[in-house]
Amino acid sequence: MHASLLITHVRLPDGIPTDIAVAGGWIEEIGPNLRRGADVLREDGEGAMVLPGFVEGHTHLDKTNWGMPWYRNEVGSRLVDRIENERSWRAGTGHDAGAQSLALARAFLAAGTTRLRTHVDIDTDAGLRHLNGVLATREALSDVMEIQIVAFPQSGMRRRPGTDALLGDALKEGADVLGALDPALIDQDPVASLDTTFEIANHHQKPIDIHLHEPGEIGAFTFNLLLDRVKALGMQGRVVVSHAFCLGMLADRERDVLLARIADLDVALLTTAPSSVPVPALRACIEAGVTLFAGNDGIRDTWTPFGTPDMLERAMLVGMRYDLRRDEDLALAFDCVSTLGARACGFNDYGLHEGARADLVLVDAETLAQAVVSRPVRKLVVTHGKIVARHGVASI
Q1: With CB atoms counted within 10 Å of each terminal CB, which end of the chain scores lower, N or C?
Q2: Is there a contact between 78 and 262 (Cβ–Cβ < 8 Å)?
Q3: Cβ neighbours of residue 350 under 8 Å, at least 6 residues apart?
Q4: Is CATH 2.30.40.10 what the domain over 5-52+351-394 is classified as, yes or no?
């Protein structure tokens, strides 16, 4: 049961002082000098800025070594090297996706993330073992965090026969979204790979989120094949292309033609804003009407030593990658880990308005830009009307 809550003396991102009344887990009223009965729990914000709960649009909870001893990374530079190394290491160590996903999810929550999309490895070695662990985490946190699970063929689909059936099983067991990976360079048959992916998604009536690392012209070719299928099957608004490095490699004219198709078919793009590879151009995406949002990707796993479960940090990295310096531009970076992420992933009832789900984060910052740049400790985190963290420490 959700208690009524009145948060007083806070400021909206535009600086306007306000109070926020919460009832039944939802924002009931926003305005100055609100009054409620004595039975309502009160929280004095002491002038803090209130933000909507953050959205992690792309991570891998099942892979993380968060809180574990340091993993010494000596893997080769090729994508296939990392895939094979990870699969071997997880099998050899008995890596516990349940315990590790719970540890990282709780760290996300303490830092203000209340909605999260995670990709979970499905392959013929592990079967649904990693999925079962993350399903347990989702159940354990169901009252305080909304977690979407992507059934992801990290080792490829067609190159490992039987993976397609396992992906279907994963969707039947509770995965929310169907994943895919580099149909040309990993599966080495983009037409057949995409046909199978869309057939599975259509059969189970699930959206798609595909990792597309493929570069330049190869990536553009695959992207157009994907868009053909989005149009043919009426899957507008139900497909995300993660990474989409090819869009950062194409000539402007070719890129803009592709962006126009992407916008027309309402396909969203996910970026981690990496510094080491080309990325989709933020301004070009905005001008074309394409939704571009952000996520961490893996955090402290066999792929990368980097990453933290702090979406303000990811917003800062977006700002740095796209050279966003003006305060109004840094607000765009925050949109990538809030409103745009919610829109792209389909997290409903999101935002700072009456009738939205009461997911609130209080930070000591003068402006939204300062919050992104300085990443202050979260003073208070509320999810669905329940206080779940204070001063960066989760209470659940």
Answers
A1: N
A2: no
A3: 52, 55, 115, 338, 339, 342, 343, 356, 357, 359
A4: yes
Q: Residue 220 has which token pair?
A: 């553009």
Q: Which two tokens stand for residue 147?
A: 């977690």
Per CATH, the number for 54-345 is: 3.20.20.140
Place 80 in a pLDDT band, splitting at 50, 70 and 90. confident
d(CA 335, CA 331): 6
* pLDDT for res 65: 94
CATH 3.20.20.140 segments of the chain? 54-345
The residue type found at 336 is: C
Euclidean distance between CA atoms 220 and 119, whole angstroms: 23
Mean pLDDT of 274-296: 97
* Vertex 175: Cα angle to 230 and 394 (nearest 5): 120
Burial of 1 (0-12, 13-18, 19+ CB in 10 A): exposed
The tokens describing 78, both together, are 């090729």
d(CA 275, CA 104): 24
Specify the pTM: 0.96
CA distance 217 to 305: 30
Average pLDDT over residues 173-198: 98
Residue 282: band (very low, low, confident or very high) from pLDDT cuts 50, 70, 90: very high
* Three-state DSSP class for residue 217: helix
Structure-block tokens of residue 392: 């960066």
Least confident of 77-86, 169-178, 186-195: 77-86
